[in-house]
Model the fold of this input.
Amino acid sequence: MKENEIDNIIELIKHEVISTIGCTEPMAVALCVAKSRELLGAIPEKIDVFLSADVLKNAMGVGIPGTNGMIGLPIAIALGAIIGNSEYKLEVLKDSSNEAIEKGKQLIDRKIINISLKEETTESLYIEVSCKKGEKRSTAIIAKEHTNFIYLSANREVTLDNTKELKDEGTKNRIELTAAKIYEFTTEAPLSKIDFILKSAEMNKDAAETSFNGNYGHQVGSLFRASILRTQDADNLKYMQAYACAACDARMAGAMIPVMSNSGSGNQGIAATLPIKIFAERNNNTKEELVRALIISHLIVIYIKQHLGRLSPFCGCVFATTGASCGLVYLMGGNFQQICFSIKNMIANLTGMLCDGAKPGCSMKLSTGIHAAMLSAQLAMEDIHASSLEGIIEEEVDRCIQNLSVISAQGLSEVNKIILQIMTNKVQQL
Done:
């Protein structure tokens, strides 16, 4: 592989694998609010927020960092308006305090925050925030990616307008990947250029260990860990599930704990790293083997999400643990063909797991994905795989991934609407 192509893929990884605190959708909304408030130059008297259906769905049921357990968009928006700092990007609320929370509650009680569905957008990730105070007005719009501003204005002066080029925005960092190209990069890139990826696993492991000391979400990770401590006879799978689910538990509960994300999702970053990190430690793999396994895991997730988009009707845990399965095969000494087998096994197994919003229950789905990742890897190492005669599986592994995109875009759009309708109806009844 040529040096410039290696450098381009490294740049892609660094663009997609970034630190975040809390669920990325409400944090992106808070980021947009913070930017609009900065443009306004004052705490707004009115905040109008317009969101695409997928953003709304993923921001309704998760804990917001720094709020002592508060859930949902109103407090994220209020804190974005009070202490949000757009320079922090997806860590926008890290300066939160008890004083800020009280002020945020007051903003909510004053009913100055209006949240609406953006009906006319075709973007799955779209956030528009307008702030007002007296005669002053400001607007900020994020689209395509969680930190990608496409429009900024203050008092009728437009400082950024990429709305006409919206279809091209968010693809500037896109590199046409294939499974073969990912494997070639994984095996040929100099270790010194890619060992930065270790930080993603270390950060996420720290998040899991912090979670073990708390009572977050449904405590799925702590349940696995308690079983390990009780029996003293746990296999690799249970350790992998314990750490990954613990990090997810804390994140979905709104713990002020940073995790390294992948393609705009902290849970995807957790799923792509912790099964690999924990297995490698218990399997006595070398540092280089761990680095390259993490690289192939992250890149497979990025590749799949290139086809499906930032947000889709499918649960992101499915595709993140598909990356993890590939990394596990690498750590087990598998070859490229066996890595392709593991992808086929994952698609044959978990396709159809739907996203019904970000929430504490995501850790349960993650545990299922990790179990499937281990099974898929073990089958692949025995050269056992789903064949092209089965369902949506094709002979070429890249075609399997393309099939996922078709199902997501064409087959599940109506399902996604029904899920959102059920969720919003529940909120109205509360």
Confidence is low (pLDDT under 50) at residues 168-173. The radius of gyration is 21 Å. The longest helix spans residues 287-308. The CA atoms of residues 54 and 363 lie 19 Å apart.
